[in-house]
Structure formats: structure tokens, C-alpha cells
Amino acid sequence: MNDHVEFVQMETKADYLECFAVMQQLRPHLTDAPAFAAQIRRQQQNGYRLLAAREHGTVIGLAGYRLTENTLYGRYIYVDDLVVDAALQRRRLGEQLLDRVREETRARGYRFLVLDTGMHMALAQRFYFRQGLLPLGMHFSQDLSQ
Fold it and tell me: Which superfamily, per CATH, for 5-130?
């Protein structure tokens, strides 16, 4: 089913532009492809990586993650973005992307892989449970622009 899928680190502006349509499915507030590419470039300077699943040259899934460190986990990988094209879900591509991020986490000698998902995202939560990720707390935020 996924025999023609390759997993590639995206690193250039052209790569990021290729990823925009799939990322927009996860982040619909993103409306400008060049602005998205510039943001990914900035995030890249802070340890962000963007892994793409491509089939026949077309991006069909993404895992965006950061190499980071804090006093709770030490050095760890934080998954910011995990998305598979809606028309291609159920092919285990999300699992394959997450497995590759896990492999990098282990290869670096890091102990933890961490991510957040919305409280309203029941399907995503079920997926993460099936992947062996467990909720260890609640994520809080406050919009200070108002």
C-alpha cells in the first residue's frame, strides 16, 4: 500500500512550499505559502525539522518536530505538527512518520518524545493512545493579544 512512499527531510524554501497544502489541512489559519515557508525557515533556526512523506513526488504527510531541552525531560523531541492528507488517511502514514521521529529520538540518545493535541481532537487522542503515547498533564495557554 505504501510501497512508493519515501520519507524525506525538507530543508529548502521550495521544499516548504511543497508542504504548504498538506500543512494547511492541520493549520487552516495558515493562508500564505511564502509566509509559511519563511516561518518554517525561522523555526528551523531553533531546531525545527520537517519530515515529509512523499508518493510519486507529491507530499502526502508531514511531521514537524523540534530538538529541544528543558528541566522536566532533559533533551527530547517535541512534535509540533503531524498530518496526513485527509484523502489518504487510514494508510498508516501517520504511524510511519511518528516511527521515524521515534527513531531519531532514540538515535540521539534522547529518552522522551512529547506532543500536545487539542482536547477536542478525540480521533487524534485515540491515535496517540494506540501509538503508546500517554497523557501526563494538561497544556495551558492564554491569548494575551486582547
Answer: Gcn5-related N-acetyltransferase (GNAT) (3.40.630.30)
